[in-house]
Design brief:
alpha/beta, single chain, Ribosomal Protein L4, Chain: A, 6-stranded mixed β-sheet, 2 domains, 206 residues, elongated
Length: 206
Amino acid sequence: MANVTVYNMEGNEVGTMELNDAVFGVEVNEHLIHLAVVRQLANKRQGTQKAKTRSEVSGGGRKPWRQKGTGHARQGSIRAPQWTGGGVVFAPVPRDYEVKMNKKERRAALKSALTSKVQDNKFVVVDSLALAEVKTKEMQKVLTNLKAGKALVVIAADDQNITLSARNIADVKTSVAGDINVYDVMKYNTVIATKDAVATIEEVLA
């Protein structure tokens, strides 16, 4: 099992922790990580774009001028695509961008993402994370102590003091252990997790 150093909120070492190899020590599958990120970004798309084709634009039922003898090019409708106000050629229509990925693959991708952070020494464990009040300055001080810039902060349960204190810090996101995803793990340089959060992740994924 991999051992990681456990820090306190002041950035001091207070012990070590063994990580479950079934979650944090798997073989990294970059292909699955890529698929998981593509799936998440694709599934966020609304797919509600729409433009009208020439059959949907109002007007244009009458031929603008006779076929021959005017000196103009022949035209059949003022709502043809080449006319101002005409329909759009190959207009976009509402569609579903959903990318499917089975549960086993999603779990394997998340394990691979977490393992890659541990291997790169970008997975920081803190013994506990608690603030007496909502204070962005205090949260920033904790991140500075842990030498973490662009960071994903993972906590075991929803804590409004932590969430609201980190909300206004650029490049920092908080997440409950049960809701972490591959995209967030890979997007942020450092993953900071409490010991309780690590235990929850291992319980869910092991």
